[in-house]
């Protein structure tokens, strides 16, 4: 059976490969370009009525798409002008063919050329952006931005790197970006994600088997089908027994995590704590189990399969030793917050259980100071190096598996940037992994659910809301 490849994200190189393989299979480049231009023209005409349109065409095939859009809009009675970067005579291949089909003049790039535009199509650079945008291109793009009219980007907003989502020199802010076949990683990594506006993925005739052959390692996070629904004949011990090493001072972090773990279906959650903190946990949420036994004794029960350590833990030599001891057990481990900070410089080895690291950018830099590159590549390298699943948090959270798979999460709102939100996420992951999900699936689903809670809660969200919102989110997943 054919695999569902719709959530795959392509790198720029993989997109060129998909184009190439399609052309070799007998669909010409000119047909692909016509399909690309038609898709853009369709997206424009379904959203906007005819108006004065300026199309900014670059010197490559992105510009070629622009010429197709110009022709199709003109044929529908739109008033269209083209500003072309470089000489018309220098165009090559399919772009030249489409320029030859445009029977009107083109004008050179200039800020003045934008002046009467009521709608702008950015067909300057797409996959072929190779250096910083500057000079007359930057000036013209700035003028386009200042015109304050709808901007439709072809493939990528010009200036955004299709792989990393980073800005090369400067970039244009689009209202919509129409890309082809599959989205690219740069559409979902910041700042690219913001600069794209709405991303529309148009089918231009590249067949799914070609994407299957390319086997992209990156996806857009879409894990709802992984949720471990309780079984009719189920027992609480079938639903996993998670343990949280309770913080001594910041007890709220552990409590938030415990609530979230239980909300996603963990059968039992034990908080391991000592001293006054033990009493705090005992007197709080009655559904938590609380133990002041030695952690070794607590973990001697093989049903306690997954341990979360880090939230509210604090830093100290004893706690560092505890974290290292846990690494030598066969329990599934989720290492968050202070546990990660204490592992800076650690020599990572294969473990018997699943391992999930959940750093934010600051913790990541301390853990992996030598790793550089795009957020996606850094997470991938860290997972490879640590042999653990790495959940690199932020508005564009990336989850990477040691085998090279990566996903970019797109759920969530800026209201998640609040104390305790990360603890809730770690708790959700604990609840899922203790029920048997592997650390990559647990991290993907946990991050997705966490973001959905924020979307459902809307404005004014605080971390206490996340566990309360989980049932509402889960209801939307029920068949
Ligand atoms: N058969 C295909 O390969 C298809 C390609 N398509 C379109 O083709 C695009 C890729 O085309 P290309 O590979 O020609 O690349 P682009 O058209 O994105 O850009 C390449 C051109 O821009 C120049 N350039 C790059 N960065 C620059 C900078 N900062 N300042 C000035 N000049 C710069 C390069 O020297 C080159 O001339 C895609 O984004 C998509 O829009 C679509 O038509 C679908 C089919
Ligand atoms: N601007 C944002 N948009 C969406 N999600 C965000 C944003 N900022 C942070 N987050 C998410 O909120 C959570 C914050 O976690 P973390 O930084 O560990 O904070 P804390 O430990 O204080 O709870 C992470 O899941 C992160 O991905
Ligand atoms: K573009």
UniProtKB/TrEMBL annotation:
Cross-referenced CDD domains: YXKO-related (cd01171)
Q: Does the keyword Magnesium apply?
A: no
* Binding annotation for K(+): 62, 122, 158
Q: What is this protein called?
A: Bifunctional NAD(P)H-hydrate repair enzyme
Organism encoding this protein: Terasakiella brassicae
Which residues are in the YjeF C-terminal domain?
219-477
Assembly: Homotetramer.
Q: Which residues form a coiled coil?
A: none
* Keyword NAD in annotation: yes
This chain's function reads: Bifunctional enzyme that catalyzes the epimerization of the S- and R-forms of NAD(P)HX and the dehydration of the S-form of NAD(P)HX at the expense of ADP, which is converted to AMP. This allows the repair of both epimers of NAD(P)HX, a damaged form of NAD(P)H that is a result of enzymatic or heat-dependent hydration. Catalyzes the dehydration of the S-form of NAD(P)HX at the expense of ADP, which is converted to AMP. Together with NAD(P)HX epimerase, which catalyzes the epimerization of the S- and R-forms, the enzyme allows the repair of both epimers of NAD(P)HX, a damaged form of NAD(P)H that is a result of enzymatic or heat-dependent hydration.
What Pfam families would the database entry show?
A: Carb_kinase, YjeF_N
> What is the similarity comment for this entry?
In the C-terminal section; belongs to the NnrD/CARKD family.
Q: Which reaction does it catalyse?
A: (6S)-NADHX + ADP = AMP + phosphate + NADH + H(+); (6R)-NADPHX = (6S)-NADPHX; (6S)-NADPHX + ADP = AMP + phosphate + NADPH + H(+); (6R)-NADHX = (6S)-NADHX
Keywords associated with the record? ATP-binding, Isomerase, Lyase, Metal-binding, Multifunctional enzyme, NAD, NADP, Nucleotide-binding, Potassium
Q: What is its EC number?
A: 4.2.1.136, 5.1.99.6
| YjeF N-terminal domain sequence ranges | 15-212
> Which positions bind (6S)-NADPHX?
61-65, 126-132, 155, 253, 312, 360, 423
């Amino acid at each position: 059976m054919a695999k569902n490849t719709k959530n795959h994200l392509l790198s720029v190189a993989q997109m060129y490969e998909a184009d190439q393989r399609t052309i070799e299979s007998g669909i010409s480049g000119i047909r692909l370009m016509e399909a690309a231009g038609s898709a853009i023209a369709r997206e424009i005409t379904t959203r906007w009525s005819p108006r004065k349109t300026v199309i900014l065409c670059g010197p490559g095939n992105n510009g070629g798409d622009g010429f197709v859009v110009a022709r199709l809009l003109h044929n529908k009675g739109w008033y269209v002008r083209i500003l072309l970067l470089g000489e018309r005579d220098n165009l090559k291949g399919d772009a030249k063919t489409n320029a030859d089909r445009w029977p009107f003049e083109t004008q050179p790039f200039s800020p003045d050329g934008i002046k009467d535009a009521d709608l702008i199509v950015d067909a300057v650079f797409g996959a072929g952006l190779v250096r910083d945008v500057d000079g007359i291109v930057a000036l013209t793009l700035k003028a386009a931005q200042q015109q304050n009219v709808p901007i439709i980007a072809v493939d990528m907003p010009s200036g955004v790197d299709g792989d990393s989502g980073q800005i090369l020199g400067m970039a244009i802010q689009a209202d919509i970006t129409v890309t082809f076949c599959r989205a690219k990683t740069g559409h979902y990594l910041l700042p690219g994600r913001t600069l794209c506006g709405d991303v529309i993925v148009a089918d231009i005739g590249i067949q799914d088997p070609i994407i299957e052959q390319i086997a992209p390692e990156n996806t857009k996070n879409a894990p709802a089908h992984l949720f471990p629904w309780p079984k009719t004949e189920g027992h609480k011990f079938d639903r996993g027994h998670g343990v949280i090493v309770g913080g001594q001072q910041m007890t709220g972090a552990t409590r938030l995590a415990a609530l979230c773990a239980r909300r996603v279906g963990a059968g039992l959650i034990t908080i391991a704590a000592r001293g006054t903190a033990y009493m705090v946990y005992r007197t709080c949420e009655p559904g938590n189990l609380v133990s002041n036994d030695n952690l070794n004794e607590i973990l001697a029960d093989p049903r306690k399969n997954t341990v979360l350590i880090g939230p509210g833990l604090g830093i100290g030599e004893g706690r560092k030793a505890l974290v290292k001891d846990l690494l030598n057990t066969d329990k599934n481990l989720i290492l968050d917050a202070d546990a990660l900070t204490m592992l800076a410089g650690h020599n990572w080895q294969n473990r018997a259980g699943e391992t999930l690291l959940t750093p934010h950018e600051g913790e990541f830099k301390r853990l992996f100071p030598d790793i550089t590159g795009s957020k996606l590549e850094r997470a991938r390298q860290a997972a490879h190096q640590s042999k653990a699943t790495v959940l690199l948090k932020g508005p564009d959270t990336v989850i990477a598996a040691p085998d090279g798979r990566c996903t970019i999460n797109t759920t969530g709102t800026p209201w998640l940037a609040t104390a305790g939100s990360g603890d809730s996420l770690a708790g959700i992951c604990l609840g899922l992994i203790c029920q048997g999900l592997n650390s990559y699936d647990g991290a993907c689903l946990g991050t997705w659910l966490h973001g959905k809670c924020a979307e459902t809660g809307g404005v004014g969200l605080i971390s206490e809301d996340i566990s309360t919102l989980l049932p509402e989110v889960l209801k939307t997943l029920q068949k």
